[in-house]
Amino acid sequence: xxxxxxxxxxxxxxxxxxxxxxxxxxxxxxxxxxxxxxxxxxxxxxxxxxxxxxxxxxxxxxxxxxxxxxxxxxxxxxxxxxxxxxxxxxxxxxxxxxxxxxxxxxxxxxxxxxxxxxxxxxxxxxxxxxxxxxxxxxxxxxxxxxxxxxxxxxxxxxxxxxxxxxxxxxxxxxxxxxxxxxxxxxxxxxxxxxxxxxxxxxxxxxxxxxxxxxxxxxxxxxxxxxxxxxxxxxxxxxxxxxxxxxxxxxxxxxxxxxxxxxxxxxxxxxxxxxxxxxxxxxxxxxxxxxxxxxxxxxxxxxxxxxxxxxxxxxxxxxxxxxxx
Length: 324
Fold this sequence. Notes:
Elements (H helix, E strand, L loop, with lengths): L7 E2 L5 H26 L4 H29 L11 E2 L7 H4 L4 H25 L3 H28 L2 H33 L1 H11 L2 H26 L10 H20 L7 H26 L4 H24 L1
Parallel strand pairs: 1-2
Helix pairs in contact: 1-2, 1-4, 1-5, 2-5, 4-5, 6-8, 6-9, 6-10, 6-11, 7-8, 7-11, 8-9, 9-10, 10-11
């Protein structure tokens, strides 16, 4: 418990410190909402207005709390923040949330208000001082009011049509930035490495050599695909999103696609390893078909024909070349 020794327990805070904590929390939340609004302004202007309105509401509550502090304790507000109090609810850093999509941001904002209300309600129950209990209850009511205000603002700025449009845009962005490059990488890694891996396997019947060839082919293909994807399009005109995100998605999935049927060759017995690798290839190819059908809306039969038939031909080529 040494990491808590520099924090105060909530039960040890004075009423002035509780009020100061509420003030600093309201200020932090307003800044978080403005950060979300700025992040969303270009792509989702309606949601940006919702978060701007929520930030203004936090400012009004902070002003009321400051006035209450001025009347009871004077002008000097103690410096106390969330991180100074053991057990106080924490906010996730904005940069961990703002890149996860608009739905994730909306969920985080709702959780922020629920966490604050729940904390103040529980704190009020544990307080034995009537004035402190009333103060905490008032703060809980204020947080509940925030939730109601958020719903009102959303109804005002984000009607069903606007929200549907934003959701569709967010889904499209997710597909362009993550799914499409990842799927291309998985297809390349799964299919392009079939020939060298199985050619080596049937030519040498040495599982360790086959594994090393598969590892080198998978990692090399992953690096190549990742850099190619990142360098081919900066995303500014195409709207495909951050190049490094697309590069990571493509590179990682390419490597995994190749490693899937290379790892079985860590099994010493050649035929056991080969049969396992073939089963893995079968699973990989059908996984690609499912992803194409599920996310890219490719007709199932067409995806099956393109992927499974193509993979089977590459596998056959590798096996024939290796056996010859």
